[in-house]
Structure formats: structure tokens, C-alpha cells
Amino acid sequence: MRLELFINSLYEKVEKKEMSVTSAVNLIAEIVQENYKVFDPKKREKELQEDFQSTVVLEFLRVGHKVFSPLPEGKDFYSVVASRIRGIVQTQIKKSADSNKISLVNLRNSQNDFETEQEKYNFILVVEDNLSVPYAPPKNADFKLKPVSLKEFMNKRTNCKEAKPAVISALRECYHIPDSIVYKLCEKYNIDSNDFFKNIQELKEIQIEKYEKHKELCNNRNASFFIHQRYTPGFSDYENASDSYKRTMKKRYETSTQHWKMKNKQIKKGRFHYTPSNELLSQKLGICIRQISYYIKKTRELTEEEAL
Question: What is the pLDDT of residues 106-144, one digit of tens each?
């Protein structure tokens, strides 16, 4: 009761200009923080509760000024504040549920991507180790040639036709190539792993803006797919709804489907394409662009051979 009286008194103070709206909102946010169970009695796990509560309070700080409008007839200020808090709580619950469903879509896509990547890098894992050396190494088992830099490796001769295409493929897939594949390449072809990873990191930094835009587009596509599923006829149960409601759902389904297909098409066409260009790879490796093009073509041929 004292809590209600105190919150009601804040409205009067703002009306009389004894307190600013900002100060009143901050004070109400503190009260909600300290007495949160009064406004949202639902029990959650401790860690989830703390995060959820903080989100609700922050959201109230953002929109709390809206409660200082003329009071509805028959309602006091406390009721308006409590109603606003409950509205924020319900909105956050819905956002959390939607976020979880979208995360499941993202997870499913990630699993599919992983399987695709495994196939993509398969030819790298099975290449034969037929490197030529300028002289026969001593029979000492501990002897090991000094690893060469990536640039040195790409500019020296080798009898292994798969070696350089595999390296180019790894650099072109700098955002997705697993570290284990890079280490395997370095071990197989005696390349300095530190130099290899340094080049990968530099390529990532150059392409970071395009990559982030591409990732954002993929997330938007996944969210659109979730919305498309939610409004798919038969997926949502609104068979017994009114005709006007059915028309609304049909329009939402058509709109969400259009957005999903449009974003998917943009991704497939390579919008915000972040693969390093042949010119960039040429500068990094100290070889001509024609050689880069040849190795990329060779990569496709090797991949096709492996698929047969």
C-alpha cells in the first residue's frame, strides 16, 4: 500500500513541477528493481531472472516517460505504471521465445553448413604427400627441414599438383577454414604455420566489413524464414478463425515469404561477397593473377574428381 501511495505521489510532484519526468522515471525504475516480484511474480532460474529483470528495467527507463500522460478515467498512476511494466514483461517474453526459435533455425543452418564445408575441404585432407626436395635428407629421424613462409612455398616448384590449389582454397575460405585443416596443410607441405595464420588474419581484417554485412544478411534471412514458417497455412492453427483474420494471416504469409525468398536470392547471388579477390591473393603471395586463376580452376577440377 505504501508503495502505491509513493508512486502515486510522484505523478502529483511532476504535475506540480516539483520533480522532472526524468527524475521520476529513474526513481520508479529503482523501485521496480528493488520490488520486482511485485510487478512480475513469475519464477525463473536465478541467472535468467537477473538478466530478464535488468532488461525490463532498462526498457522502462527508455519508455517510462510515456506514463506521464493524462490518467485514464477511474485509474490511478500506480495502476498505469504496473500495467506498463506488465506490458514490457510480456513483450520481452515474446522476444525471448522468438529469439530461441530463430536460434534453432540458425543452428540447423550451421549444421548444414558444417556438412557442406566438410565436403568442400575433403580433397585437401586426401592429397598425397609427394613433395620434391632439392636433396635427400639425412637418415636421422630427428632431422626436419626448416618451414618456409607461405610466399616462399607458392614461388617454389613442387611435384604435388594438389598442393598449391589446396593452399589457395584455404586462403579463399579464410573465414571458414578449420584450424585443423590449416595445421594439416602446414605439416604436409612444410609451411610455417605462424606465417599461414598471419596471412589468414590479414585477409579477414581486409574483408571484415563485407563479411559482417553478409552475416547480418544471413541472420535476417533466417529470421524471415522463421516468420514465413509461423504464418504458413496449416503450420499455425487458425482454421476456425474469422474470414478477416484469415485474410490478415494470408497477407502476412505472402509478405514474409517474399522477404525470405528475396534475402535468400541476395545471398545466393553473392551480395556482400567476402571471398578475397584474385588481385588481393596475388599481392599477398607474390605470384601473378593468372596463376591464382589457374589454381582456383584446378581446385574445382580436384573437387569434381573427388566427388566421382
Answer: 555 555 554 455 455 555 544 444 444 444 455 554 556
The string of DSSP letters for 233-287 reads: BTTB--TTS-HHHHHHHHHHHHHHHHHHHHHHHHHHTTTT--SPPHHHHHHHHTS
pTM of the full structure: 0.50
Q: Tell me the C-alpha distance between 176 and 218, whole Å.
A: 15
The size of the chain, in residues, is 308
CA 183 to chain centroid? 26
Strand partners, 148: 191
Nearest to 68 by CA among 7, 154, 142: 7
Q: How many CA atoms lie within 13 A of 278 on its CB side?
A: 11
Q: What is the pLDDT of residues 25-57, one digit of tens each?
A: 888 888 888 888 888 887 776 667 777 888 888
